[in-house]
Design goal:
The structure holds two protein chains of two kinds. By secondary structure, chain A is of the alpha+beta class. Chain A folds into four domains: 99 residues, no CATH class; 109 residues, Kinase associated domain 1, KA1 (TATA-Binding Protein, 2-Layer Sandwich); 110 residues, no CATH class; 137 residues, no CATH class. Chain A is built from eleven helices and 23 strands. In chain A, the strands form five sheets. In chain A, strands 4, 6, 10, 11, 12, 20 and 21 form a seven-stranded antiparallel beta sheet that branches. Chain B is mainly alpha-helical. Chain B starts with a helix and ends in a 12-residue tail after the last helix. Classes of the chains: A alpha+beta, B mainly alpha.
Amino acid sequence: MTVLDRPAVSAPGPSAPRRGTGLLLRWWRRLTAMRTAIVLLFLLALAAVPGSLLPQRSLSQNKVNGYFTDHPKLAPVLDRFYLFDVFSSPWFAAIYLLLFISLIGCVLPRAMEHFRALRAAPPPAPRNLLRLPDSGTLVTPLAGPAALDVVEEELRVRKFRVVRRDGELSAEKGYLKETGNLLFHLSLVALLLGLAGGKLWGYEGSILVTEGQGFCNSFQQYDTYASGPLVKSSDLTPLCVDLKNFRAKYEQNLTAASFTADITYGAPGAAGRPTTIGVNEPLRVDGDRVYVTGHGYSPTFSVTSPDGTTYDDLSVPFLPTNQQTMASEGALKLPDIGTAGNDQLALEGFFAPTGVIQNKILTSIDPRPLDPQVAIFIYQGYLGLDSGVPQSVYSLDQKQIQRGQLNKVAAANLKVGESTTLPDGTRVAFTGYKEFASLQLSHDPGQLWVLGAAVSLLLGLLGMLLLRRERVFARVAADPGGGGTVLTLASLTRGSGESAPRFAALTDDLDDALADRAPALPTGGQTP
Amino acid sequence: MTPDSMSALSDHLFSVTVALYSLAVVAFCAQLAFGRRPARTPELVGAGAPAARPDEAPEEDSRGRRWGIVAMGLTVLGALTQAGVLLFRGLATDRLPWGNMYEFATATVLIAVVVYVIFAVRVPALRHLGLFVLAPVVLALVLIGLFLYADAGPLVAALRSYWLAIHVTTAIIGFGIFFVSGIASIMYLVRSRYEARLADGAPAESGIVAKLPPTAALDRVAHRTAVFGFPIWTFAVIAGAIWAEAAWGRFWGWDPKETWAFIAWVVYAAYLHARTTAGWRGRPAAWVNVVGLVVMIFNLLFVNMVSTGLHSYAGVS
C-alpha cells in the first residue's frame, strides 16, 4: 500500500524536515506491518540455528577450543561473526530488538483502540445485513420494538453487550479475545525485560567441594563464575555452604538413581543449618540457589620422605572422564614436599572406583567405589607453579615435562593401602578416596519476573486463541405481507471454530423466544 | 506378571500395532480405490461453484464406505494396542513410559493417531485423510522400532521428577498435534496445486489427489490443530524451563533442545500470523507449517542423536 516512487521534486516540495519525518513514518509503518513481523520471526528462527549447530562459549568453552583446533582456518572467521556466541551477538540482538519494536509498534495502537472499544458502544449495523457471511430473516407477529426487546434479552443472557438504535440493534461480545491478544504480546515484552534484568544483575559460580570442606559466596573462591555487568562483589549474598556428606545411588543396571549432598549453610561465621540437596532439589535461600551439578572422587595419598617425614591425607579432585564408570583423571601437585626447591613432587593419573586391570591397563567397570585403584605417573622436578603462567589444577604442565624440568621417576598401579617407592627412597601410598560434589550457586533476580510474564503470556494466548469475538446485528421492518415484523439478523465472528452452526442455533433460539412471546401480543403488544 | 514379561508384552504389542496400522493403510487405499470416482464435470471450477459447503464429503458408494469403516476400526484398534505398548512399558518399569526416545516417539505417534481419529469422527470428510496420516505413522513406527528401540529400564536421576509428567507429556501432545497439522498442510499444498490446475482448465483426475478433501477443509484442519497445539507447546516449553531451573541451575541456557524448541515455537507463531496476513495466506502459510513440522522432527532426531546437550536421554546405543 505504500507508494514507493515519489513525485519528482521540483517546485516547492515539502521542506526537508517534513520529508524526513515522512520517510521515518513510512519506515515505521513498514517495520510495524505484520509482513515485516513474519519475516523477522523467520530471521529469528534462522538466526538461532547456528547457535545449536556450532559449539557455543556459553555452553562449553572446551568444545569451542576443540573447534578452533579442528578448524584452524575456519574458526577465526566464524568467530568474527560471533558464531560461537550467537545468543549474545549483536546481530541476534538486532533481530529480536527489531522484532520487539515491530511488536510494540503494532500492539500499542491496537491496545489504545481496544481501550476505546471497551468503553464505546458496539458499532451500528451495516446497511445491508444480508451481505454478511452469516445472516437470515425471521418473521414474527410481534411489533418491531417488542421483537427487538426479545432479541436484546436473548443476547444479554448470552453476555453480549447490546445497544439499541432506531429500529436496529448491535451487540458484541468476546472483548477478552483482544485483551488476551494484547496481554500475550505485552507479556513477551515483559519476558524480555525480565531476561535482560537477570542477565544484568545475575551471577553464578561453581566450585568443586570435597566432603568435609566448604565455600563462601565470593568470586575469589569459585573455580569459575560468570556475572552480569551490574553485579558488584559487595552485592553477593553472604552465604557459606559446607559439604558434610555426598551420596550417589545406583540402580542394578548402574543407572544413576540419585545424588544427594548433606550440607550446612548460613551466614559466614554463624552456625550452619543442615539440609540435603540433590538433583532436581536445589537449596533456595534469599533469592540464591545452590545446586549439585556433578560429583566425583578425590583419591588420597600419603607421602613419606626418605628422612621419615610423612605427609598424610594429600588429595585433589580427579575429574570424571566417563560418567557411566566414573573413570577419572587428575593431577596432584606437591610443591612443598621435597628437600630442595627443584625437588618438587607431582603425580598424574587415572582413578577407577572399581578397577580392573586388562593387559596392564587400568579401567573402571562400575561407578561405585567397590575396589578403588589408581594408575599414576610420579614426577619429580620443578612444577613451574610460581612462573606466573596459570596452570590447570587437573593436569601437569606438559611444557615443564618437555623442557626436562619435570621428570617421570615412577609409574604404578595401586590399590588402597599399596605403595610404591621412588628411586630416591620417597614412598608414595594410595590410602583411599573422598567424594566431592560440584556445587553451583546461582542468583537471577529476573527469574520470578520471567515466570510471571510466561504465565500471563500463556493466559493471553489461551484467551486469544480460544475465545471468539462475535458481533450480532438485528434490524426490524414491517412485514410487507402482513401485520407482523420482519427481523433481519446477521453475525460477524472473529476467532476459531465455525460460525455457521452457532448462528443457526442462535437464530433457532430467537425464533423460539419470539414464538413464546407472540401469544402475549394482545395485551403486551398494544402499548406502543 | 513380572516386569520382564510385561516389557516383553509391550514389545509384542508394538509389532501388533504396526501390523494393525498397516492393515488400516491397506483399507484406506481400498476406500480410495473403490470409493466413487470424482465427478467428471469439475464442480469446483468457476466462481459461483462453492455453493455447497466445501468440506462436505463427496458421496461415496457403499463399498467405499465399508472400507472406510474397516480402516477406521483398524486404526482405533491399533491406537488401543499402541496405548498398551506404553501402558505395559510403564508397568514394567514402574514409571511414566516416556523416559527415552523410543517411548517418547511412540507416545508422540499415538497422539497423532488419536488427534486424527478425533477429527475423522467429527468431520467425516477428513476420513479420506487417513491414508496420509497412517502411512507416515507406519513408517515412523517402523523406524522407531528399528533405530530408537531401548530396553525397558529405570530413569536416570535427573528425570526423576514430577516435571517429567508435566513437561514431557505436554511436549508429546503438542508434537502429536503438530504432526497432524503438518500432514494437513502437506495435503493442502498437493491439493491446491491440483485445484489450480483444474481452474486452468485441466481435466479432472481420478487419482488420489482428486479424492483429497478440498483445500478449504485441509486448511481449516491445519490451522485448527496448530491453534490447539500452540498453547500446549508453549506450556511444554515453559514447564521445561521451570524444570530446568530446578535440575540444571538455570531456566534457559540455549541447550540445543531448548534452541530448537524455541525455533519451532517461533515458526509456529509465524504460521499463525501468516495465515491472517495478506500475501501469506494459502500456500505460503502452509509452507510455514510444513517447516514447523520439519523443525519438530529435526529436534527429535538430530538433537537427541547427533548433538550433545543436556537433553541427551535418547538411550539409543
